[in-house]
Structure formats: structure tokens, C-alpha cells
Design goal:
The chain is an alpha+beta fold and 177 residues long. It is built from six helices and nine strands; from the N terminus they run αβββββαβββαβααα. It has a single domain, classed as OB fold (Dihydrolipoamide Acetyltransferase, E2P), CATH 2.40.50.
Length: 177
């Protein structure tokens, strides 16, 4: 009986942090959902879906571009996410890949996300390269995604819900074809 309890004690934590695998719905440039389970990409912050970047005369929807880019990345194959951190947030942080390619790193490379400096140096070199080459948001002025989200007070839930519903309809139509 003691052996059974020891085995259960060792396996329960692994079950709680099991990998998520499949075709997630992109909710934001750094947030995806696998059904009811949402995850944020570990180590990065992307512009929120309603955020704009640039300056007068050359403003663009960098938040929407981040969503579209992440959607393109996840269409390349099955997404595998491994939760790496439980936070106070209802959405855990996860390292996510498609065919072994790091999605957060790809968002940084495209200049459509910034690294989360509080979580280490994982993407420092990649971010520096994107900034130096003026890719994505680095092509002009922008407000840091965290600062923008805090100052705008926008949880953007209505927009995310509309995007989620539209994506679900498109997937259903594709499945019928």
C-alpha cells in the first residue's frame, strides 16, 4: 500500500502539468487556447489585439499583425505546449513549439513580441537582432505591450471573443470541405 501511495504521489504532479498538444485557437499574439485551457507563451509579451504601433501617418495594427503571425505559425503543424510556471494569473505560462520550433522565439524574431525581462535572458539576443534590423514593432515607435495594456485598461475580451468565434466558424467550414 505504501508503494502505491508513493507511485501516486509521484505521478499526480506530472498529470497536473501534462503537455497540451493539438491545434489551438490563437487569442492574442502570446495567448492560445486548447479548448477551455488557455496558455501564455513563456518569456514574451506581444502587443494586445487592439494595440497600434508607429506614429502619425504610419500607424499600423501591430496587435492584429501579432495575432495573424502566431496563427500562421500554429498552422504549420501540431502545437506542443509544456507548462513551465504557475502564476497568480488564471493563464499559465508555457513553452510552445511546432515541429520543435519555439513559438515565442519566432514571435521575437518577427519583431511582434518583446521579451519578458523578469523571466530571464532567454530571448535577449533574438530581441536585439529584431530591434537592430528594425523588424515588426522595432520599425518605428511603439509602447511596450505591458505598459500599453496597463494604461489602456483594455482586457479586449469582446474582441478576443469575436476572433475566437470567427476562428471556430472558419475551422468548421474547412472541416466540411
Amino acid at each position: 500500500m505504501k508503494h502505491l501511495l508513493a507511485i501516486l504521489a509521484l505521478t499526480v504532479p506530472m498529470i497536473a502539468h501534462a503537455d497540451l498538444v493539438g491545434d489551438p485557437m490563437v487569442l492574442d499574439g502570446d495567448t492560445m487556447s486548447f479548448g477551455e485551457k488557455k496558455v501564455d507563451l513563456f518569456g514574451v509579451h506581444a502587443p494586445t489585439i487592439t494595440q497600434t504601433c508607429g506614429e502619425s501617418g504610419s500607424v499600423w495594427s501591430c496587435g492584429w499583425e501579432a495575432v495573424l503571425h502566431l496563427e500562421e505559425l500554429v498552422r504549420a503543424g501540431d502545437v506542443v505546449c509544456v507548462e513551465v510556471s504557475d502564476t497568480d494569473s488564471p493563464t499559465p505560462l508555457a513553452r510552445c513549439t511546432v515541429d520543435g520550433v519555439d513559438l515565442a522565439g519566432q514571435m521575437i524574431d518577427a519583431g511582434l513580441a518583446v521579451r519578458d525581462e523578469t523571466l530571464g535572458e532567454d530571448y535577449a539576443e533574438r530581441e536585439l537582432a529584431a530591434a537592430t534590423e528594425k523588424r515588426g514593432i522595432w520599425a518605428g515607435p511603439f509602447i511596450d505591450p505591458v505598459t500599453w495594456a496597463e494604461s489602456s485598461g483594455c482586457a479586449c475580451s469582446a474582441r478576443k471573443k469575436a476572433v475566437a468565434e470567427t476562428a471556430a466558424l472558419l475551422k468548421a467550414e474547412q472541416a466540411e470541405e
